[in-house]
Specification:
It is built from 15 helices and eleven strands. It is of the alpha/beta class and 333 residues long. Strand 3 and strand 4 form a beta hairpin. It is globular, with a radius of gyration of 21 Å.
Length: 333
């Protein structure tokens, strides 16, 4: 296969810019390199990410820092049980002009931005959660019969607390599937926490700086789609996603009583995209099987449901994904 020299040069330039972006993010969001890489991969792939972690782990700071580094306009919505769809999308108000005439005027909600942070998204009612569905999928909203385009690019980074579930509304499967990745933000290890203490409790703190502009980010997203994917990687993606569907011909027998439902084609599309993005983030021109292995859990963990029996045994979704990867590796061998 002929090598596209222009593509190679463009990817080389992009990887250098991405290295600068990661360095800039890590000036404020110390450590957690895998989290930074996964969220950047989601944005480079043109998608949205759900950040799951306990309070105080820096999720809000990460989103704010990414907005600065990527040069994006940002807005934040604190989801609460009394939040209404109009609080996110906007609403029409009746204006009375000096001559006495009246006309409706639309006031844009916070969704009209480029990077929307949906903080504690599962605290809002299903009706309010669903207000984001069209925005996340189509990049536009329909209000009073009129289609209104959102910012370009448009990304949603939502946060969720996995522990405190009282007074929350679990996200429906349709909305979970709109998130390209679920990024689990865990406690830092001792060395990372030490670095956080030293970096954030002194007189001076690290500051992020812009590396991309919105137009440059859009161009980077287009370039990611042009990166080639080898047949081996393509088959690995198909094998893994199809193996996670209970009852499918490719699925191991044990999945029938372990899983209730599995990932659809959107999961395979997501894995295809983020393996390319991870390759670019690591300075490579094409994804490898290592990229598939690294991004499998973030892509699949919110698209798989364990059966009651599996949950009673104490199984976890991540453990099931690892088992599926092991089974796929044995079959390939």
């Amino acid at each position: 296969m002929a090598v596209d020299e222009n593509l190679v040069s463009e990817v080389e330039t992009l990887t250098r810019r991405l290295s600068q972006a990661k360095t800039s993010v890590e000036q404020r969001f110390v450590g957690q390199k895998a989290v930074v890489e996964q969220v950047l991969a989601a944005i480079l792939s043109g998608g949205h990410a759900l950040l799951v972690g306990q309070p105080g782990l820096g999720k809000t700071m990460l989103v704010d820092t990414l907005a600065t580094v990527l040069g994006l306009e940002t807005a934040r919505v604190q989801f609460t049980p009394d939040l209404m769809p109009a609080d996110i999308l906007g609403s029409e108000v009746l204006d009375v002009k000096p001559d006495g005439s009246r006309a409706f005027r639309f006031i844009e909600g916070p969704v009209f931005t480029q990077l929307l942070m949906a903080d504690e998204i599962n605290r809002a009612s299903p009706r309010t959660q669903s207000a984001l569905l069209q925005a996340m999928q189509e990049g536009e909203v329909t209000i009073s019969g009129e289609h209104r385009t959102l910012g370009r690019p448009f990304h949603v980074l939502a946060t969720q607390n996995p522990i405190e579930q009282e007074g929350t509304y679990p996200l429906p499967e349709a909305q979970l599937d709109r998130f390209l990745l679920q990024v689990d933000v865990d406690y830092p290890d001792r060395d990372t926490e030490r670095a956080i203490l030293l970096a954030t409790t002194g007189v001076e703190q690290g500051a992020a700086h812009a590396v991309f502009s919105p137009d440059e980010l859009i161009a980077a997203q287009a370039l990611i789609r042009r990166m080639p994917v080898g047949e081996t990687v393509l088959n690995a993606i198909l094998d893994l996603v199809r193996a996670a569907r209970p009852g499918a011909p490719e699925a191991p027998a044990w999945t029938a009583e372990t899983l209730v439902w599995g990932p659809g084609p959107r999961a395979a599309q997501s894995l295809m995209m983020v393996t390319r993005a991870r390759a670019a983030l690591q300075g490579r021109f094409a994804p490898t099987l290592d990229d598939v292995a690294a991004m499998a859990a973030p892509v699949l963990r919110h698209r798989i449901a364990l059966s009651f029996a599996a949950r009673a045994r104490g199984e976890t979704v991540d453990a099931v994904i690892a088992r599926l990867q092991g089974a796929r590796g044995q079959a390939a061998a």
